[in-house]
Specification:
The chain is mainly alpha-helical. The protein contains 16 helices and no strands. The N and C termini lie far apart (58 Å).
């Protein structure tokens, strides 16, 4: 019982990671993987979750042991590494949030039948609502509210999965042909799935910032073992949800020959209606709620994380900057990111795909580099030997870097040539 109390008290960074990761990579990519390619896609999903694990774990480990953010760890390695991470963050600032809010606004319109309001205005309403929640509630509210949101999402998804399995595999059409994974279309999808599963590697800096905030809110600093246990729980939950979305996609769509949209909003709406058709119209609200909760929680956590990381990067690069007080700087950054991303949605809505493609390209290319930077921080002089990762975890990190480098090189070759 005491172990459970300690776990519940320490819940935070791992929970936020799960909430942030189960956005489009799960709702759209995992479901689409099962729907188009079947059970074979469980292999890359599990591989991506296992081989990326060390890089996110290092963020929690470094912060718990040193009481510093991973961003400060990059600075200690050399200013050029922080500038590199700053470049990746800058591109995320103008693309990732805009893309997430577009998908969430589209889902809100399509799932709950409010087509009288346009996408840009709906996104603006979401920006205002989520910004207010983050500014007023801060980290503590984010943590508490996401315990509820993730619980609702997890329960809804478990029920949906059970109903789908109980209903049985949908009957394939008579002329169904198994799609090929190893052609140009299949490889590009596989790269996207691996690249965003469970999320981009640079999000390790986000986990580190949440770990910093968690430490500030606690009277007693949790041990490294306690912090890693909490994060591991969130990480396992993230991987499990990815598998559940894959199962749902396989059971309801694989073999039907259904034309699946490449647009995330249309696809998510399409999936909800197809689930409803398979299970029954009574399940629509349950499925729609799960889909919207997935994207809403992702928007909220990503908005919070990018705000914190952006501030930390600026403060580390320009430590003498006194333009904003500590109390006001977070609120300013949240509002600034909301405005700038709403302008991106309003001005470049038709070209959002190009902007996201740019962010994807940079994310994929930099993934093995950021992974290496994370490994260097937790094996450097900042951390005592007893707190450094063991040989198995370091070996897994090296295998992960080779894995990510291979996909990055192949992705560059596919895109550029």
């Amino acid at each position: 019982m005491s172990s459970l109390k300690i776990l519940l008290k320490n819940l935070g960074p791992g929970l936020l990671f799960a909430s942030m990761a189960i956005g489009t990579s799960h709702l759209v990519l995992s479901t689409k993987a099962g729907a188009q390619y079947g059970w074979i896609m469980i292999i890359p999903i599990i591989l991506a979750n296992v081989l990326k694990y060390p890089f996110f774990e290092f963020g929690v480990r470094y912060t718990n042991v040193t009481k510093k953010s991973l961003i400060e760890g990059y600075l200690n390695m050399g200013r050029k590494y922080l500038w590199l991470y700053a470049l990746i963050t800058l591109i995320s600032v103008f693309t990732i949030l805009a893309a997430l809010y577009v998908v969430t606004a589209g889902l809100l319109i399509n799932l709950f039948k409010i087509s009288s309001v346009n996408l840009s205005l709906t996104a603006f309403g979401l920006f205002i609502f989520i910004s207010a929640l983050l500014i007023i509630g801060r980290y503590r509210f984010l943590e508490i509210s996401l315990k509820l949101v993730v619980s609702v999402l997890f329960i809804a998804l478990i029920i949906t999965t059970i109903l789908v399995i109980n209903k049985g595999q949908i009957t394939p059409v008579s002329n169904f042909q198994r799609p090929t994974v190893f052609n140009e279309v299949g490889i590009l999808f596989l790269i996207g799935l691996v690249g965003w599963m469970p999320t981009a590697v640079e999000a390790s800096g986000w986990v580190s910032m949440w770990s910093m905030e968690k430490l500030k809110s606690m009277k007693k600093t949790p041990s490294l073992k306690e912090s890693l246990y909490e994060f591991n729980l969130g990480y396992i939950l993230t991987a499990l949800l990815a598998v559940l979305f894959l199962v749902i996609g396989c059971m309801t769509l694989y073999g039907t020959g259904a034309e699946l949209s490449g647009n995330a909003v249309t696809f998510a709406d399409q999936v909800v209606h197809l689930f409803t058709l398979h299970i029954g119209s009574w399940a629509y609200f349950l499925i729609a709620t799960a889909a919207f909760a997935t994207m809403f929680s992702t928007c909220m956590t990503a908005h919070d994380a990018v705000s914190r990381v952006s501030l930390d990067v600026i403060n580390k690069l320009y430590p003498t900057n006194t333009l904003f007080t500590k109390n006001r700087s977070f609120a300013f950054m949240v509002i600034f990111l909301a405005l700038i991303n709403w302008i991106v949605i309003s001005s470049f809505g038709a070209n959002m795909g190009t902007l996201v493609a740019l962010a994807t390209f940079v994310s994929f290319v930099m993934a093995p580099v950021v992974g290496w930077m994370n490994l260097k921080t937790v094996t450097g002089n900042d951390i005592k030997d007893e707190h450094k990762p063991n040989k198995t975890l370091k070996l897994l990190a090296y295998i992960g870097m080779v894995f990510l480098a291979f996909f990055s090189i192949y992705y560059c070759w596919m895109v550029l040539f």
